[in-house]
């Protein structure tokens, strides 16, 4: 499995045909949760809060995309869109099975990490106003069927 990221002002080192010049991602994390309150003895009458969506965090090697990402972090200027593709290898090459698209993205954190024998990495956290998650699971016959959910953090609307 490989993970690739496209950030508007940064050119990465990826050479895979469908993701040329994208940024290789080593790790990606984000979550959604909600608080649910349940009165004792009334389990069927639960109340929940709005969905909480965390910032999305990626870890990558320090590479030629690092400088423009650092500039974007210092300036705090929103990027219109950041796309992250999760791929797997099958008989036809790399296939995308999940795409996460973020809109109005601001880098909220950039952490550099280096160890004596290891290649240095950096971890970036992205704050955003809208997230789209497209999944393309493989069906029994080998075909895929894509499904997308979009969450707008400014309105709490799900589409």
CATH class: Mainly Beta
Strand residue content:
over 45%
Distance, first to last CA: 28 Å
**Helical proportion, percent range:** under 10%
The structure class reads mainly beta
Describe the sheet with the most strands.
10 strands, antiparallel
* Helix-strand topology string: EEEEEEEEHEEEEEE
What is the global morphology?
globular
Radius of gyration over alpha carbons?
A: 18 Å
Tally of separate helices: 1
List the helices and strands and how they pair.
Blueprint: E1 2-6, E2 23-25, E3 27-29, E4 32-33, E5 36-38, E6 46-48, E7 52-53, E8 56-61, H1 66-75, E9 79-90, E10 93-113, E11 121-127, E12 130-135, E13 147-152, E14 157-158
Antiparallel strand pairs: 1-2, 1-9, 3-8, 4-7, 5-6, 8-11, 9-10, 10-11, 10-12, 12-13, 13-14
Q: How would you describe this structure to a colleague?
A:
With 159 residues, this protein is mainly beta. The protein has a single domain (2-31, 50-158), classed as Pnp Oxidase, Chain A (Roll). The chain has one helix at residues 66-75, and strands at 2-6, 23-25, 27-29, 32-33, 36-38, 46-48, 52-53, 56-61, 79-90, 93-113, 121-127, 130-135, 147-152, 157-158. Strands 1, 2, 3, 8, 9, 10, 11, 12, 13 and 14 form a ten-stranded antiparallel beta sheet that branches. Strands 4-7 form a two-stranded antiparallel ribbon. A hairpin with a 2-residue loop joins strand 9 (79-90) and strand 10. It is globular. It starts with a strand and ends with a strand. The mean pLDDT is 92. It comes from Acetobacter nitrogenifigens DSM 23921 = NBRC 105050. This is Protein hcp1. InterPro entries: Hcp1-lik_sf, HSI-I_assembly_Hcp1, T6SS_Hcp.
């Amino acid at each position: 499995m490989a993970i690739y990221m496209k950030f508007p002002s940064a050119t990465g080192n990826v050479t895979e045909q469908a993701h040329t010049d994208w940024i290789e991602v080593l790790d990606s994390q984000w979550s959604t949760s909600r608080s649910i309150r349940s009165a004792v003895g009334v389990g069927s009458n639960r109340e929940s809060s709005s969905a909480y969506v965390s910032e999305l965090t990626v870890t990558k090697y320090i590479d030629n995309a690092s400088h423009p990402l650092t500039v974007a972090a210092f300036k705090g200027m929103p990027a219109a869109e950041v796309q992250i593709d999760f791929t797997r290898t099958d008989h036809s090459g790399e296939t995308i099975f999940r795409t996460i698209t973020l809109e109005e993205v601001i880098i909220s954190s950039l952490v550099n990490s280096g160890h004596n024998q290891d290649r240095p990495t950096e971890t970036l956290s992205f704050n955003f106003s809208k997230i789209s998650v497209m999944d393309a699971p493989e069906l029994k016959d080998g075909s895929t069927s894509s499904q997308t959910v979009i969450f707008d953090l400014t309105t709490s609307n799900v589409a």
